[in-house]
Amino acid sequence: MDPTPRTRRRLAYVGGAIALLVLARVLRPGAGSSCSWRGTSAAPELATDETSASATAATPLVVRLRCPPSAMAELGVLTDLPESDLTALLDRAALASLVGPGLCGDEAACAAVRAALEDEHTTTLSVVPASAWNLAAVDLDASAGGLAALSPRERAGIVQRARVVVVHVDTAPSPHQIAVRASFAAAAAIATKIDGVVYDQLLDRIETAQAFAARAVTAPLAASAFRKDRIEVLYEPRSEGIVRILTAGLARWGGPDVEAQAVPLAAADRIADVLLGVAEAIANGANAGPVMLSRADLARARGEAYADDPSLPDGGPMAVELLSVHPEAGDPNDFLARIAPPTGTGPLAFLDLSERFFGSELAAAPGEASLRAGREKAQRELPAALARWAATRATGGSTLLLRLPFDIAGEGGTESMWIDVTRYDARSVTGKLLDDPLGATQFTRGDEITRPRADVEAIDARDRRRP
């Protein structure tokens, strides 16, 4: 899910007067297990329910993270072959022989992967009806992303695949990250052998064998198996302009997933990068918070370098504090590590955290060429977006947010803010202002705004029927 709108406001987003979200209490020492294999030094002090409530920036907590008892990964390969043709694939030794260097890496890494696949206590292989994996409920349009999206014909053929070859790998957590390596290699090998497609229930992905094979871990055993495309970053709306961001997939490394609880959309991209940095640290062995991350660490975790910018703050390591917390209903992991900004728990605190790494929102504003391209794109897409919103409005099916420029009194500049559309006509759009103005203070959050359609700078259409 993309944290739309991706373009940021040209002035710092402050979020306004919204209720601060209360930190969930820290898991008690009896729940779950500590990340005992991980190589970071032991925490000199462990957080408790009582100390977590009184943590301040002056006295940062050192928190031993709570982790799953094992590293577990399960993937399915969808096929239309009869079960009799799949029996040979259930032989662990035969499966191990299908895994070549392109799916497991060098000789040492491949030996470890094949040993895991041949071990009956580590790897379980089975064939189940597709109905057991509830494929009828899968949104194929939403699930077909990845390195190579399924074609319309391939999506249509999913319903014809009546069986799932299930690969289940369960290991003790270790720095070799065998659960990730073995499960990905095995699923890719099976899918290639039988012309199947891989279904990753945890990350809600359906991919061709070739696309999924590109996710296989081929790094040496001593190297990291973490890569951004091997997990998912999820965005959950909390209130207008505020999202919760969390990862899915770190249970396969035997670690907790990571969340940021109340992030303003203006800082969502940056906090997502911080989230990825923490996720990589956990996958690679961090067992306690805070973790020390530099901007270079965030660039490596997201898989893309940041452009040189002399206006950015110093890129040296900074402490990112973490708390172990209970998951919410529907979360992908029973264990969570929550990012705890030093200045609080709400949107302003996350804006502050993003600015510690990247500077102010104003300094990071897109250039005029980028803004112009965004406006042109929005103008092209606006008629269709309005029509779709009108078609689903009666059933409460969608929300349409539009970004508009607002003059800053006496300054000669503009501030871009969002409205929630309530009606439109051939020339104008009307909606309620969602943002608390920073510069254009003649406006107030909740004001009804009517503007020419030509003013629209960006579009954010959301389906209310999806979480």
| Approximate strand percentage | 15-25%
Detail the poorly predicted runs: 1-31, 40-58, 362-366
Q: Mean pLDDT, rounded to whole units?
A: 82
Molecular shape: globular
For the biggest sheet, the summary is:
5 strands, antiparallel
Quaternary structure state of the chains depicted: single chain
Rg measurement, Å: 24 Å
Q: Which structural class do you get from the secondary structure elements?
A: alpha+beta
Helix content: 25-40%
Number of domains: 3
Tell me about this structure.
The chain is of the alpha+beta class and 467 residues long. The chain has 3 domains: 170 residues, no CATH class; 143 residues, no CATH class; 96 residues, no CATH class. The protein is built from 12 helices and 21 strands. A 5-stranded antiparallel beta sheet has the order 5-6-4-7-8. A 5-stranded mixed beta sheet has the order 9-10-11-16-15. A hairpin with a 2-residue loop joins strand 9 and strand 10. The radius of gyration is 24 Å and the shape is globular. 42% of the residues are buried. The N terminus is likely disordered.
Q: Strands, helices and their partners?
A:
Elements: E1 33-34, H1 49-53, E2 63-64, E3 66-67, E4 71-79, H2 92-98, H3 101-104, H4 107-118, E5 123-129, H5 140-143, H6 152-157, E6 163-171, H7 178-194, E7 197-200, E8 205-208, H8 209-213, E9 232-239, E10 242-248, E11 257-264, H9 268-283, E12 288-289, E13 291-293, H10 295-302, E14 318-320, E15 322-325, E16 336-339, H11 347-358, H12 368-393, E17 398-407, E18 414-424, E19 428-433, E20 448-452, E21 458-463
Parallel strand pairs: 11-16
Antiparallel strand pairs: 1-3, 2-12, 4-6, 4-7, 5-6, 7-8, 9-10, 10-11, 13-14, 15-16, 17-18, 17-21, 18-19, 19-20
Helix pairs in contact: 2-4, 4-7, 9-10
